[in-house]
Amino acid sequence: MRAGIVVKAARVAIVVALFAIWEILSRTGIVNPRLLPSASDTLTTLGDLLQRASVRKDLAVTATEVVTAFALAVPVGALIGFLIAENRYFADVAKPLLFFAFSIPKSIFLPMFILVFGVGFSQKVGFGFFSTIFIVIMSTTTAVESVKVEHLTVARSYGATPVQTAFRVYLPSMLPVLLEALRISMIFNLTGVILAEMYASRDGIGHQIATWGENFQMKQLLAGVVMIAVIAIAFNELVRWVETRCSHWRT
Amino acid sequence: MGGNTMQPLANITPLKPAGAIEVRNVGQIFKTTTQDVVALEDVSLDVKPGRFVVLVGPSGCGKSTLLMMMAGLRQQTSGTITISGAPIPEPDPNRVGVVFQEASLFPWLTAEENVEFPLALRGVTKSDRRARAQDALKLVGLDGFGKRHPHELSGGMKQRVSIARGLVQDPPVLLMDEPFAALDEQTRMTMGDELLRIWTATGKTVVFVTHSLTEAVYLADEVIVMSPRPGRIVDHLQVSLPRPRTYDMLSGDAFGSLRDRIWRHIRKSA
Amino acid sequence: MGGNTMQPLANITPLKPAGAIEVRNVGQIFKTTTQDVVALEDVSLDVKPGRFVVLVGPSGCGKSTLLMMMAGLRQQTSGTITISGAPIPEPDPNRVGVVFQEASLFPWLTAEENVEFPLALRGVTKSDRRARAQDALKLVGLDGFGKRHPHELSGGMKQRVSIARGLVQDPPVLLMDEPFAALDEQTRMTMGDELLRIWTATGKTVVFVTHSLTEAVYLADEVIVMSPRPGRIVDHLQVSLPRPRTYDMLSGDAFGSLRDRIWRHIRKSA
Amino acid sequence: ADTVRIGLPTKTYWPTTIAETAVRQKLFEKEGITAELTIYRGGAETFEAMAAGAADVILDATSLVSAGRKKGVNSKVLASAATGYYGWQLMTLSKSTLGVKDLNGKKVAITSAGSGSDLLALWTQQDKNIEFTRVPVGGGGLVPNLLAGNVDAAVVYSPLSFQISKSGEARTILDFSEEVPPNLAAGWIALDKYVQDKPQLVQKTLNALYGALMFMRANKDASVKLITELYEIPSEIAAQEYENTIMKLETDGSMDGPKIPEQLQLALAMAKAGGMKDLGPAAEIISTQFKPVPTKF
Amino acid sequence: MSAATIRRLIVIGLIALWEILPRAGFIPELFLPSLSSTLAAGWNEAGEYAPALAVTLYEVAISMTFACGGGILLGAVVGSLPRPRILIMPMVSSLYAVPLVILYPVFTVWLGIGSESKIAFASIYGFLPTMLATAAGIQTIDPQLLLAARSMGATLSQRLVRVIIPAAIPTVLSGLRVGGALVIVGVVVSEMLISSAGIGYLISRYRTILDSPHVFAGVLLVLAMAIAFNAAIKWIERKAAIWQTGTHAGQTAVEEIAPAALQPVT
Ligand SMILES: Nc1ncnc2c1ncn2[C@@H]1O[C@H](COP(=O)(O)OP(=O)(O)OP(=O)(O)O)[C@@H](O)[C@H]1O
Ligand SMILES: Nc1ncnc2c1ncn2[C@@H]1O[C@H](COP(=O)(O)OP(=O)(O)OP(=O)(O)O)[C@@H](O)[C@H]1O
Ligand SMILES: [Mg+2]
Ligand SMILES: [Mg+2]
């Protein structure tokens, strides 16, 4: 954190360099500009798109779905993951089954969600939840497994209840692993919601992006992708902010 | 050592009656991948309420194991242990407190927060907790180090935080596993005297493990000497030196002969 | 203690010349979130090759920090340190070996494998490595415990494995941070004698941190006394007692006066 | 008012234009109903949505209706919508000199296996008696892969086909709207159960949809403007789309017509050739219950 | 009742439901064909599924090497060097935030439409979680252990192989689990999107023509791959447990070996 400014500068430099390469590749025609419109064109298009009320509305819809799905998936997933890590019996029963569920491409189940929820908010949220929960469960299990036995013994000797142990020992010591998991989960969640929107939708940004792609509107498509990436990155940064606030005790 | 102004721990007052410890024919066998290890065999021991008992014995003889069993952190393979009249299948901070051989501080908490931890578990209010943690830290000579994280403390400082964490709980039975091992002689003496003062004031039962025979005799009502593998009790001495103890007694004959008697056991068995 | 038949460490032979240590005006300032801590200030020190130097001082005075800097594990904020004539910006096991204050064993390796670890790093063959590790474990009285994992060992046993790991490296300069803190007095004495024997046979330079003043005087050529925060050297004693040392010397006047002199420093500063 | 949920297979497909027109011209309102438009990823997805009860009236390939009956989804074609693949073209890069016959042994991009574009590719192989590899690249991959030279030709749908032809990037070597014999490729569809429960609603929906078609035929400028806006394409392309697809759609919609069974049978035969199994006779899926009466605009 | 029994009962229950629900007409066959018809469909077209499975397995195997091998290695490097960690990690996890699935059709332009693009996609898909999990796991390592290794002159690569990876083994393994599963998903999804071979291709093709028994036959094969992968990880876990005893995971594993030896952890 002390070298914060240097690191930040380096990071900005890398981002700028990436955009510059993108621009050059496209402008010089090394890559067909029809396939990869230049960075500046994409950003201009992005600006135009954001002017449109319909796009802003789509973004708002998607954001609401994403946030809802995430807010549901993370606590539920974390709880299940915790139970699995803590309770051997439950783990033996559930772990392999969950793992198999995790290994199947989720998009196969999209029709099931329409069957159960119809098309709409709950279907998107449901699918976002479904895409996220398994990774949350698995990451929580991982995180729990990195906790030191001595620390648990100490807490036990002070008569910590399971809930207290969870919040005062597990949570802080798992934090780095957990936050990383949170980041990945968010990405899964976002992808899940967008896939659901692409699959069947009346609104939402995923639906727009699918159309742009199928219509070979590369500028809009890339602008849309940038838009989603920015949302995900903003979330990433939020998590990182939490992380730096919480783990200053690490050297 | 930062500001060695050790002050009384105001909040440690004789609230709860001291506990009795009864250990009956206790054995502990560890199953390892290679073979079974008989760590303790047929250990029986009675600690009356309010006594200060010191456990000595060569490295690896089972002292820590015995303490863990008394704390309910490990179940014996055979025999029974009761604390204040009841078995202890689970750790119970209302009956027993432990200071571990390794400091085992939570790295994500500051020294202060580490000491507050057991109080926070019991729902003591923030301000009350803070005050008591401050007192305990003052007591171990770490006034002003409350805001540091464990990795910013020296080995001895960590051990002292761990002692403070044990004391702040104020349990009727206090089990301490080599608490002063990483301390210099002066700090060790001061801490020993503080411990005796608290003990006298509160009437706790203390079981204390140490490798320093001088410390053992200086602190104890009774010294229990253990032999190595399988760990057994080979001697049980009553230390009848008057209290308060002074460092002058260390050169006295009574002291010397007690120390020698223990030393002979240790020498033989190690 | 399991089979205390300490035997000579056959493979520790005087292969490399001992190293000299020069510490010049060294300071160490830790930046913490709350404030800056001056851990060491203007420390200068010369250790001639082959000397046995003991470092004492109250808890938190900066002994471990000084050792870490000599080992190249931490860079000083100011001043210079040279080992065998060259600065040590990086740890260099060919010049310096360290035994840490906390055992720091690798939990996934057995005792034996932990001791072999530094040899494995240097590509010593399996059989050679195993033989040397066995010797080292025998030396610290842990013959037969090679197959155990650290969590299956007692506190003192872990510390001894850590000592064995330090010795097996056979570095010209050996830095030991309270290596005997968790040992009972008998084992401590035996280990101290073993260490002196190895030191005599190999001519290593040893810097040894301890809190036991008796041990300090018993082992040392020179004792360096440090004061607490900011850590400084307040005294530098030459121990001219003849070698080999015996435990009878402990009651002699020369010994007593040296011990007293150190004690007064510690008492004052702690 | 009753709400009808209309399922549309992709955004830039003519049914969307029709349904949107009906909404904007308030034709549903005039019928006293409201409509909710949902766009799906493709024909199969739309059909599944109807089967799942998430869509009431959909526009889809007639072959799916037949396949669906064997899978426990009972629906029928209520109104005929298109008897050709309007705007669908087999295209190569403009600089390429390949003709249809030259595609023997080459690679041709389709959207996905079993889709409309696959059907057309298979038909081409049969009709022209050639063999080529069909490469499913997804809707978004058609033009990029063609431009990058990963494939030699692609089956492109409208208005994308008009667009890349206009931009000079690609040229048409086979126009499916001309070449494929008329068959009932697409129709408005609903579940039997829905038809039974709400015949009135279905009738009104069809009225509005065909009313929209009538409106579009009568108002070129407004329609082109709508297409431009909806699909974010230049107005020339929109005009092309208007001429080549909208104007060719079935205006009547009645399933009573004498040619209907035959045209439907032909559509099913094509689907069978495309790998669909278990297709029933055409008669099973014809519903003559409705005759769209275009809503007045 | 033992956990394995319960699990078996659950599986049997699921299988029974799978057969009964569609048969009884509670779920249209379009959404879930009965297990028997799925198996029959798979069996009848075995000649088609077998080569597809071979293609998918080949792609999975190669992607797995890239994703898991590379992910662990890079995660270990990045996780143990503070400077690159601060610099690179945010960028990497941000990069992962770009929704690749959407861009995949465009990527095939450069990577081709054969196995390469699937391998690239699945590798990236599985690589990042493996790497991020490994890097995060490494941060939970006791710094004292690294200090000790450094004092013994361990080079960076030695520290990596002998300290960092063993110490982080539980996290690494779970990273591997997640990464491996994602590789399978990645290959199948990219096959579903764009390809003319593999299980994913068959799934999406049959799906487009509403042939659900054949779709689920493909899904069953994917499941079989996951089961095989899980068995492999289990095997590694058991091996690793012997030398991993300092953490919760190790403890649990040791308990499995000698149930009487240790206390349950909580
Ligand atoms: N988890 C375990 N598995 C196997 N053996 C164990 C385990 N814990 C302790 N032991 C063995 O039990 C014996 C007693 O250990 P204990 O830690 O009680 O010794 P101690 O008296 O505290 O020694 P020290 O003074 O060195 O701390 C030792 O031989 C040790 O190796
Ligand atoms: N990483 C760090 N950050 C901040 N302060 C530190 C750090 N490491 C050590 N210190 C401080 O430096 C001082 C010296 O610490 P050091 O560990 O060298 O003491 P020591 O002499 O070894 O004590 P002990 O005998 O208790 O082990 C202490 O006050 C300690 O709090
Ligand atoms: Mg012990
Ligand atoms: Mg120290």
UniProtKB/TrEMBL annotation, chain A:
<comment type="similarity">
    <text>Belongs to the binding-protein-dependent transport system permease family.</text>
</comment>
<dbReference type="Pfam" id="PF00528">
    <property type="entry name" value="BPD_transp_1"/>
</dbReference>
<feature type="domain" description="ABC transmembrane type-1">
    <location>
        <begin position="59"/>
        <end position="239"/>
    </location>
</feature>
<keyword id="KW-1133">Transmembrane helix</keyword>
<dbReference type="GO" id="GO:0005886">
    <property type="term" value="C:plasma membrane"/>
</dbReference>
<dbReference type="InterPro" id="IPR035906">
    <property type="entry name" value="MetI-like_sf"/>
</dbReference>
<feature type="transmembrane region" description="Helical">
    <location>
        <begin position="59"/>
        <end position="85"/>
    </location>
</feature>
<protein>
    <submittedName>
        <fullName>ABC transporter permease</fullName>
    </submittedName>
</protein>
<keyword id="KW-0472">Membrane</keyword>
<feature type="transmembrane region" description="Helical">
    <location>
        <begin position="181"/>
        <end position="200"/>
    </location>
</feature>
<keyword id="KW-0812">Transmembrane</keyword>
<feature type="transmembrane region" description="Helical">
    <location>
        <begin position="97"/>
        <end position="118"/>
    </location>
</feature>
<dbReference type="GO" id="GO:0055085">
    <property type="term" value="P:transmembrane transport"/>
</dbReference>
<feature type="transmembrane region" description="Helical">
    <location>
        <begin position="125"/>
        <end position="144"/>
    </location>
</feature>
<feature type="transmembrane region" description="Helical">
    <location>
        <begin position="221"/>
        <end position="242"/>
    </location>
</feature>
TrEMBL record, chains B, C:
<comment type="similarity">
    <text>Belongs to the ABC transporter superfamily.</text>
</comment>
<comment type="function">
    <text>Involved in beta-(1--&gt;2)glucan export. Transmembrane domains (TMD) form a pore in the inner membrane and the ATP-binding domain (NBD) is responsible for energy generation.</text>
</comment>
<keyword id="KW-0813">Transport</keyword>
<keyword id="KW-0067">ATP-binding</keyword>
<keyword id="KW-0547">Nucleotide-binding</keyword>
<dbReference type="InterPro" id="IPR050166">
    <property type="entry name" value="ABC_transporter_ATP-bind"/>
</dbReference>
<dbReference type="Pfam" id="PF00005">
    <property type="entry name" value="ABC_tran"/>
</dbReference>
<dbReference type="GO" id="GO:0016887">
    <property type="term" value="F:ATP hydrolysis activity"/>
</dbReference>
<dbReference type="InterPro" id="IPR027417">
    <property type="entry name" value="P-loop_NTPase"/>
</dbReference>
<dbReference type="InterPro" id="IPR003439">
    <property type="entry name" value="ABC_transporter-like_ATP-bd"/>
</dbReference>
<feature type="domain" description="ABC transporter">
    <location>
        <begin position="21"/>
        <end position="253"/>
    </location>
</feature>
<dbReference type="InterPro" id="IPR003593">
    <property type="entry name" value="AAA+_ATPase"/>
</dbReference>
<dbReference type="GO" id="GO:0005524">
    <property type="term" value="F:ATP binding"/>
</dbReference>
<dbReference type="InterPro" id="IPR017871">
    <property type="entry name" value="ABC_transporter-like_CS"/>
</dbReference>
<protein>
    <submittedName>
        <fullName>ABC transporter ATP-binding protein</fullName>
    </submittedName>
</protein>
TrEMBL record, chain E:
<dbReference type="InterPro" id="IPR035906">
    <property type="entry name" value="MetI-like_sf"/>
</dbReference>
<feature type="domain" description="ABC transmembrane type-1">
    <location>
        <begin position="53"/>
        <end position="233"/>
    </location>
</feature>
<keyword id="KW-0813">Transport</keyword>
<dbReference type="GO" id="GO:0005886">
    <property type="term" value="C:plasma membrane"/>
</dbReference>
<dbReference type="Pfam" id="PF00528">
    <property type="entry name" value="BPD_transp_1"/>
</dbReference>
<keyword id="KW-0812">Transmembrane</keyword>
<protein>
    <submittedName>
        <fullName>ABC transporter permease</fullName>
    </submittedName>
</protein>
<comment type="similarity">
    <text>Belongs to the binding-protein-dependent transport system permease family.</text>
</comment>
<keyword id="KW-1003">Cell membrane</keyword>
<feature type="transmembrane region" description="Helical">
    <location>
        <begin position="119"/>
        <end position="138"/>
    </location>
</feature>
<keyword id="KW-0472">Membrane</keyword>
<feature type="transmembrane region" description="Helical">
    <location>
        <begin position="215"/>
        <end position="236"/>
    </location>
</feature>
<feature type="transmembrane region" description="Helical">
    <location>
        <begin position="182"/>
        <end position="203"/>
    </location>
</feature>
<feature type="transmembrane region" description="Helical">
    <location>
        <begin position="60"/>
        <end position="81"/>
    </location>
</feature>
<dbReference type="GO" id="GO:0055085">
    <property type="term" value="P:transmembrane transport"/>
</dbReference>
